[in-house]
Write a structure and sequence with these properties.
The complex is a heterodimer of chains A (406) and B (251). With 406 residues, chain A is an all-alpha fold. Chain A has 15 helices and 3 strands. Chain A is globular and about 70 Å long. The two termini of chain A are 21 Å apart. By secondary structure, chain B is α+β, with helices and mostly antiparallel strands. Classes of the chains: A mainly alpha (406), B alpha+beta (251).
């Protein structure tokens, strides 16, 4: 028989709760201060230049936007693929998706040369621009996931939540495709220019979003002192492993196809061998920290059952994801444009020769971290106001196929 | 006096209407006033403004085109109004680049700026439409609706665009620049609209190099078209199929 799940708010009166708000709130304030400082002075106070035009803020922003779409996974699995065991987590999953997207967009907007012209961006559309499509996709995401959340939380609308879930599922796939295409469609730069970027971003979003979701879920239940069943954790961590492997597969295919094409040998040598910080971030950050280590932690019998190890693996996936964004976004610009095949540039007043350098400043890092903190602070606040989470996530409560271990 | 590479077809057009008086009138001024497109008349797609650079005559040590552009449009140079930005952050609308052939060591020098593509990637990617191409082929940025996202700079294959990293003062009224917006070579649109020649081309000729030509690519009788027909001309990154308005000889 189907069990009825009771949802609840969190009490939110403990010292820990307020401490969490204070810490995240302080980071948000620091980020806001950094944005004001950059906006007031102009971008000369950043490490960005006319050579590297997108820097640390974009690393965080794109990561969060991609992760937002991935955070919706759990909800999609329950509504689109009808997996009952995921259903109790669907509202939290949708909430996290909205908060992560908001955090990412705030960073992106505050890094604009003219954040004050946001209204221009919303009223003037060039429909050939992937950025313009994305503005529609992001706004649509808020609306669709918002409606989905409403249908899930409002019992009178519950019958429609499945349809809203379907819409949200297709929308988020389109959204991540759009985000990946921002880079994939840049034919001018050797580091981008690959249609595989779009599906690669989709699969990466699965891993990044789920890693954040797992951490938020485990933290919420652990800090509430409520039960979170091993069955749920095991299911999610195995899924995370599959997603990490999927993302790694795309990374391998991306580089192998580039290695096959002679014209891309230069940029591949740069990323994989000669690129200094970018090469190190690729091998140690993206591959080792973001891929190999978490896979070992998640699947090794000793660590695979430990929640500490699973949390650690999730954190590694996030760090690896940030490294991946840095390699993709900044590394893709650091590699010089190949304008004159067969010729080398021996002099230029505009730094055309050689690898471009970029050193992020504190303000840029704080803006990125502040945006991340803003995405996260919305969770404890929202959980206190509305009933997003089940009272108990004990396996016996939520899994219709659950059987006591003999 | 040296003949400037202007477009004879436009003269012919003019000749029919204002011939007699102009022949007698001293100097170029009257000539320009009579030909200039009225301010309320839209740019026409009948013309396509373009430039031709002869890398064989472009002198390695010379940067007359760059300094002329700086003086004309008020960026960079000795009196740069970007005092806080690092060299990597300062705007450059046009730059001189020296190349060496990897195989045979042949060296050549050329000016590099916005290539005024027929299908400009910067215009494609711009979310607000601030990046735009005029009917006569000149690619510009509308500073009023540029939000400073720099996507156009990511998309430009020539790194021809710059972002203004600080507050600016003392700007030229015809070449507005602003903190937080993107800018690039305008092909001296304010001169072209008054039937003039871009500052870089003028300076190159004044310096005696005759390495830069300006004119209407659509008009087979223009000097630039005739030269292109006779000697040919390459596009930088022709593989992208952008049909650039700036062509290079000897590249």
């Amino acid at each position: 028989m189907k069990k009825k799940i009771t949802y609840t708010e969190i009490e939110g009166r403990s010292l820990g709760y307020y401490a969490l708000l204070v810490v995240l709130g302080a980071l948000v304030l620091l980020g806001a201060g950094a944005a004001l400082y950059m906006e007031h002075n102009g971008h000369y106070v950043t490490g960005m230049s006319n050579q590297i035009v997108w820097g640390m803020p974009h690393v965080f922003a794109v990561f969060l936007i991609v992760a937002a779409s991935g955070a919706l996974n759990v909800a999609s699995i329950s509504s689109v693929f009808a997996k009952t065991a995921y259903k109790p987590m669907a509202p939290l999953s949708a909430l996290l998706a909205i908060s992560l997207l908001l955090g990412g967009l705030v960073i992106l907007v505050l890094d604009l040369g003219h954040p004050d012209r946001l209204i221009v961006a919303m009223t003037f559309y060039n429909f050939k621009s992937i950025f313009a499509w994305n503005m529609i996709l992001y706004n649509g995401f808020f609306v669709i996931v918002g409606v989905y959340l409403w249908f899930m939380l409002d019992r009178t609308m519950a019958n429609y939540s499945k349809y809203a879930g379907f819409a949200a599922f297709f929308w988020r796939l389109t959204l991540t495709t759009g985000t990946g295409s921002i880079f994939g469609f840049i034919v001018a730069r050797q580091g981008f220019d690959s249609a595989i970027m779009a599906p690669m971003f989709v699969v990466m979003s699965f891993a990044y979003g789920l890693a954040i979701f797992l951490l938020v879920l485990m933290a919420t239940y652990s800090w509430r002192g409520a039960e979170l069943g091993d069955g749920t954790v095991r299911r999610l961590k195995n899924l995370l492993g599959v997603f990490i492997a999927g993302a790694m597969y795309f990374v391998v295919v991306f580089h192998l196809t580039n290695l096959y094409m002679t014209k891309h040998h230069g940029v591949e040598a740069f990323t994989l061998r000669d690129g200094g910080i970018y090469t190190q971030l690729f091998w140690y950050g993206e591959i080792l920290v973001g891929g190999v280590l978490p896979l070992i932690l998640l699947y090794l019998p000793v660590t695979g059952k430990s929640r500490i190890a699973i949390s650690f693996a999730s954190i590694l996936v996030i760090l690896g994801g940030l490294a991946q964004m840095y390699v993709t976004i900044v590394g893709g610009q650091a590699y010089p444009l190949e304008m004159f095949p067969g010729k080398e540039i021996i002099a230029s007043s505009f730094f055309d020769a050689g690898v471009k350098s970029y050193t992020p400043t504190l303000a840029e890092a704080l803006l990125g971290i502040g945006g991340f903190a803003m995405a996260l602070i919305m969770i404890p606040l929202a959980l206190r106001i509305l009933r997003f989470i089940p009272v108990s996530m004990a396996d016996a409560e939520i899994d219709p196929h659950y059987r006591e271990a003999k | 006096m040296k003949q400037l590479p202007t477009d004879p077809s436009r003269r012919n057009f003019l000749g029919k209407t204002a011939a007699a008086g102009l022949l007698i009138a001293p100097g170029v001024l009257l000539h320009q006033v009579a030909q200039a497109r009225p301010a309320d008349e839209a740019a026409s797609s009948k013309v396509r403004w373009g430039m031709l650079v002869d890398t064989n005559t472009c002198s390695k040590g010379c940067d007359a085109c760059v300094t002329a552009c700086q003086t004309e449009n008020g960026w960079g140079g000795e009196h740069s109004n970007e005092v806080k930005s690092s060299p990597e952050q300062q705007s450059q609308w046009i730059r001189k680049v020296t190349l060496r052939d990897k195989q045979n060591g042949h060296e050549q020098s050329l000016p590099l700026m916005c290539q005024h593509c027929e299908t400009p990637p910067c215009v494609d990617v711009c979310p607000t439409g601030a990046s735009m191409k005029r009917a006569d082929g000149i690619v510009l940025v509308d500073k009023h609706i540029c939000i400073g996202c720099r996507y156009c700079m990511m998309a430009c294959p020539y790194k021809a665009r710059s972002f203004v990293h600080e507050e600016l003062h003392d700007q030229k009224p015809y070449a507005p620049r602003g903190k937080g917006t993107v800018e690039s070579c305008t092909m001296c649109v304010h001169r072209v609209d008054k039937d003039g020649t871009p500052a870089c081309v003028e300076a190159c000729n004044k310096a005696g190099h005759q390495a830069m030509w300006f004119g209407d690519l659509n008009n087979p009788n223009s000097d630039i078209s005739k030269r292109l027909k006779e000697y040919g001309g390459n596009q930088i990154r022709a593989d992208l199929g952008l049909n650039t308005g700036v062509r290079y000889q000897g590249l």
